[in-house]
Amino acid sequence: MPPSLPILAEPTLFSLPEMLLFTALVFTSAWLFWRRFGPILGRILQSKKDPDFHLFPIGKRVWDFAWEVLLQARVIRERPLAGVAHALVFWSFCVFGLVTLNHCAVVFGLGFLDPAGRVGRLYFDFAAIFAVGCAVGILGLLVRRFLVRPKWLGELSWGSGLVALLIFALMATYLAAFFVTTPGGAVQALWWVHTITLLAFLPLIPHTKHLHLVLSPFTVFLSRGSFAHIPPLSGDEDFGLVAGKDLTRLVSLQAYSCVECGRCMEHCPANATGKELNPKEIVLGLRGYLNEFGPQSEEALLGKYESQRAAFECTTCGACEFQCPVGIEHVPILVGLRRGAVNTGTWENDYGSKLFLALERGSNALGMSAAERDKFVEKSALPIFDGTQEYCLWLGCMGAYDPRGRQIVLALVRVMRHLGASFGVLRKEKCTGDPVRRLGNDLLFQQLAEANLEALTQNRVKKIITICPHCVRTIQEDWKEFGTPPEVEHHSEFLARFASQLPSVRDEKKIVFHDPCYLGRYRNVYDEPRQVAALAGELVEAPRSHERSFCCGAGGGLAFLGEETGERVSHVRVEELVATGADVVAAACPFCNTMFQDALAARGDSAPELMDIAQIAARGLPEDGT
Amino acid sequence: MSVLLVLEQSGGKVSRLSWEALAAAHRLAPAQEITAVVIGAETDALAAEAAAKSVGKVVRVEHPLLKTYTADGYSKALHQLIQGQSPGQIVFPHTYQVRDYAPALACRMGQVLIGDVTGIADGPVFMRQLLQGRLNGSYRHSGNGPCFVSVQAGAFRADSVETQGNAAPAPIELFTPALDAAQIRTVPSEPFRESAQTVDLGSAQRIVSVGRGIKGAENLPLIEALAGALGAELAASRPICDNGWMPMERQVGSSGQTVAPKLYLAVGISGAIQHLVGMKGSQCIVAINKDPDAPIFEVADYGIAGDLFEVVPALTEAVKAAKQ
Amino acid sequence: MKIVVAIKQVPDRDAPVRIAADGKWIEERELQWAMNEPDAYALEEALQLKEKHGGEVIVLSAGPERVGSTIREALAKGADRAIHIVCDDLGAGAGGGLRNFDALGVARLLAEAIKPESPDLVLTGLQSEDLGLCQTGVILAELLGLPHATLILHVEKTDAGLKVKRELEEGWFQSIEMPLPAVLAMQSGGNKLRYATLMGIKRAKTKELRAVNAAELGVEAAPVATLEQISAPKKQKSTQMLGGSAKEAATALVEKLKTEARVL
Fold first, then answer.
1. Is B71 within 8 Å of B104 (Cβ atoms)?
2. Which helix (H) or strand (E) holds C77?
3. Which residues contact C79 (CB under 8 A, 6 or more apart)?
4. In chain B, what are the domain boundaries?
5. What's the average model confidence in pLDDT over A320-344?
6. What is the pLDDT of residue A332?
7. In this complex, which of A401, A562, A602 lies closest to B239 when CB atoms are compared?
8. What residue spans define the domains of chain C?
9. A360:C196 CB<8 A
10. Pairwise CA distance, residues B297 & B2, whole Å
11. How does pLDDT run across A20-63, given as a tens digit for each residue?
12. Which residues are CB-neighbours of C29 under 8 A, at least 6 positions away?
């Protein structure tokens, strides 16, 4: 018989003292684990219940779990090399579940996998392949962490190094057992080294970021499930994340799940431009808070562990949340901290107050008189929506008052007329509440959402089209808390549907399309605007595009909050877009448009042209739109 | 019915607004039935000035306690005067000072001030603005007792009365009210101006603001000359401050300052929304831009579509010429 | 310090106004209402004084039921309790409705409601955004027999009473010292207004809001100044573009600024 597959050497007989020693070691290890993990679990479970949590529909949860945890897709997609290394370790851990169970069972003669048997031999060899992968992977990660040292990983952690070495030792001792041919002491020794390594690893888990091994599968499975979802407030005493008592189980679970990989920080526009905000520190701050004050505390969250200034530097672009491999939902946390500050009046900011007061009394975030909108509607001869038209063209604050936004609206109007799509605008429109929603002013947001919902119902609006992805998001998702919003569509989706009927004016131009956060990550619309932008020429891509697009700096109400500290996000993004060598920067959001307009103006005359996709679509149409 | 006209002084002379109020009084009564009132501790010069105008009589309300304005002093003194005169109407210029005491004076006589009047029709019917100028309202006075009216600045032409000077000055009478220091409950300080430690665009009356049309920092003296001629503060749009051509505190717009001057002159500013939200409250907006389609013209009251390098020097000259 | 702040509910600045059928006032149905902004500044000053010196802030407003929303807004922003002089605009109510009262009549109503409170300080906004009469505070002082000052930007409590900063014309100011109790008419812009918060609104629900029927205050509507008719002003002119050579345009502009806009 030719030697086919190698066979794992396994001790067969254990003495009573060995059994007792093993049992004692297992209990010690488990006790050490629990001594740390028990209180953590306690703090999570003692947190407030999530008022809006529903386990069902479960299908999406299972799918997310399979995709993100089992297939490690998010980990790999974001950082392919390190991601694959991590996936190898993860998968081998899964495979090793059975191996380890058997490993312990043999002590009591209860081994269920026979190394020489057909099944056992096959499984052990299968595991050996993973063990090699895991060993290589963990060495790679070790090299990265201790030699390459990307700044996202933060300070060197010796705990991580020790854990990595233990994992390597586990794999090495497992693999070595294939090469021991003589039964006896060597086999026994390998078994014990493997066992002790394993039992040393267990208590280290809750003491290090490897706590994510235990928690993150739950975090991913139990997450709110929709991107950047802002949960409703519950009851008369809920003002957002004010103190520990407001931290919900999901938030606490997420806080303890953070693996400190720094993907959030790497992609954060605020962090990248020298601001105080670091999403990782926000999450770790919650963990620190929970460890010191506990989940029922009245101690303010914004204080020792969380900075108010940082919380209000977030553009809610969602890059952090989108990248997070362990299911942490940063946006609801950051907005929650803002809610806590704004709903209780502890946030004092001149620009913020100005915005709030403008919307308390007026109709738009820009503080303009509503008469200005009327004038624009009249002057541009926009039809008034009367219930007979297909689309309600929602102007939004930018479309109604911003000169540039108006041009975009008028371009869209020309296209709609050309296509024979029927539309009308409302006589009166209020801000959707996007900026105040993201800044955490629930009172104002509710007032605006309710007033708008009522107006739309009265006008029998069934379908909305708008140039503003922020309006789209707010109408479709955020208003749900207060009623049933009509169907809403971003103009990129409309334009893409009819792209074949639009004239293409290709004049050898290179076009770079900037994905707006609220269209891409928030709505998963990437191809449609590109289809429209391509009408004008050849598309080129910025280094950060699609899901990884870098914010323009306007979101989260920040367009209204005055001067930034550090570099301007818009300037950084514009440099990146200009560096593609494109002749045209194509945008699909009036906020991006206005941010880039300024940033390009500051560059001087050599700047590329800035166009909204609606303007690209309308370019070949005759001026009168017929 | 006779009219009592209460004049106000500014820098030792009767203020222009007072003469505008005289023009309004002429709508109510012939000159000889108008009694002009000057008030203070020493009123000879003011009275002489008033007597040269088309009024029937001038009354000097004089008392040492009237040296500086106090609501208590003025309303008590005038109350005593009016009681002796029983005029049909009492006319004031609608100044900060009048707003401070005239309603109390009217109240003391069971009357209400019809304030900030912009026009007088037969009746008399008094026109005034409502809802911040969105509507006009016409008011009528009823019942016994004098009718108190204050006149909005600029609503009547002061130059129309100045040409009607009498050949002989109107007679001047002295009235000494009975005042007691204990009756004056407030102690006002000397007027002061805020020390200008920082640029305060928010309270500037006139602003000349410059945008990217200026092309380079070396061209700024052009704008400075215009601002100098107008007595205006300098401001800029964001790109100008970004480039360091002007300090950040002079930035007008959503990330800078919000201003509401009487005159906002935007030079070479296209009118991005960030800029518009910072200056839309200005009373009068003038835009100079070479692009006739620039959005700034949408919000402007007056526009010149032209090369700022030609228009601005011409404007500076025109402003200087107008001042002479 | 016990402070009464008189606030008024006015049509929202942004609300489109239509003249009512009788031509005497605007159509109030479907109108949106808001707190008179100068009164918001008066409230803000009162709240800041309370935060500094302790005491109580009482808001006072007269008008029909709709005024309740503005009163609650004031309570939400931090006032301790409120008095609502309930009085319909027209018809029912004392003397046939609030609109039959002139400035003196309204001030009498407010004064009657204030007297039993004997406050240390009464604050009002300088003027209302609808009628713009600009005198309620001054008349109140006269009716209550208290010293007053108007156009006040800043209030400082002293041992003897108050030291206030008053705005004069042309960028000048003066300070005025006066004893308490007193009445101040506050100029807009002296403080930064606070925004309404969810917590404030929820807390406001438990605060005292006392309704007083205007008829109980024993004030007769005997107007001496009546608003007879309202009309829309001539349509606002749009942008005037000045053409010609640079020199011609500049000369024309200066002339317009002098005579039309009167800003030179």
1. yes
2. helix C67-77
3. C5, C43, C46, C47, C57, C58, C59, C207
4. 3-183, 201-323
5. 96
6. 97
7. A602
8. 2-232, 236-264
9. yes
10. 49
11. 999 999 999 999 999 999 999 999 999 999 988 988 889 999 99
12. none
The reply to whether A25 touches chain B by the CB within 8 Å rule is no
CA–CA separation, A36 and A43 (whole Å)? 12
Query: Which among B272, B276, B280 has the least Cβ separation from residue A598?
Result: B272
Q: Beta-carbon neighbour count of residue C159 at 10 Å?
A: 4
* Cβ-based neighbour number of residue C191 at 10 Å: 18
CB C196 to CB A443 under 8 A? yes
Would you give the DSSP letter of residue C26?
A: B
B256, B241 contact by CB (below 8 A):
yes
pLDDT value of residue C92:
44
List the alpha helices (DSSP H) in chain B: 16-28, 44-51, 71-85, 96-108, 159-162, 220-230, 238-242, 273-279, 296-299, 308-323
CATH 3.40.50.1220 fits B201-323, yes or no: yes
Residue type, A247: L
Buried residues in B90-120 as b, exposed as e (16+ CB within 10 A): bbbbbbbbbbbbbbbbbbbeebbbbbbbbbb
Query: Rounded CA gap, B74 and B67, in Å?
Result: 10
C173/B contact by beta carbon, under 8 A: yes
Give the whole-angstrom CA distance, residue B286 versus residue C240. Answer: 9
Same fold, B3-183 and B201-323: yes
DSSP letters, A445-494, are HHHHHHHHHHHHHHTT--EEEES-HHHHHHHHTGGGGGS-PPEEEEHHHH
Q: Do B272 and A597 touch (CB under 8 A)?
A: yes
Q: Distance between CA C146 and CA C148 in Å, rounded?
A: 6
Angle at A181 between CA A12 and CA A184, to 5 degrees: 40
For the segment A8-18, the average pLDDT, to the nearest whole number, is 88
How high is the ipTM of this complex?
0.90
Q: Do B232 and C257 meet the contact criterion of CB atoms below 8 Å apart?
A: no
Of the candidate CATH numbers 1.10.10.410, 3.40.30.10, 3.40.50.620, 3.10.20.70, the domain formed by C2-232 belongs to 3.40.50.620
Distance from the Cα of B44 to chain C's closest Cα (Å) equals: 25
In this structure, what token pair is assigned to residue C5? 């702040």
CB contact B109 to C (< 8 Å): no
Domain B3-183 has CATH 3.40.50.620: yes
Q: Is-contact A280 A260, C-beta < 8 A?
A: yes
Per-residue pLDDT reduced to its tens digit, C229-261: 999 887 655 789 998 899 999 999 999 998 888
Q: Which residues contact B6 (CB under 8 A, 6 or more apart)?
A: B21, B37, B39, B78, B90, B91, B92, B98
- Crossing angle of helices A249-257 and A212-222, in 10° steps, is 140
SS3 B62: strand
pLDDT, residue A201, reads 94
The residue type of C158 is: T
Among A361, A563, A596, which would you mutate to test the B interface (most chain B Cβ atoms within 10 Å of its Cβ)? Answer: A563
pLDDT digits (tens, 9 = 90+) for A375-404: 899 999 999 999 999 999 999 999 999 999
B106–chain A nearest CA distance, Å: 34
Distance of CA B243 to the CA centre of its chain: 38
pTM of the model: 0.89
Query: In the predicted model, is pLDDT for residue B164 greater than 60?
Result: no
Under the banding of pLDDT at 50, 70 and 90, the label for residue C95 is very low
CB-CB under 8 Å, B238 with A562? no
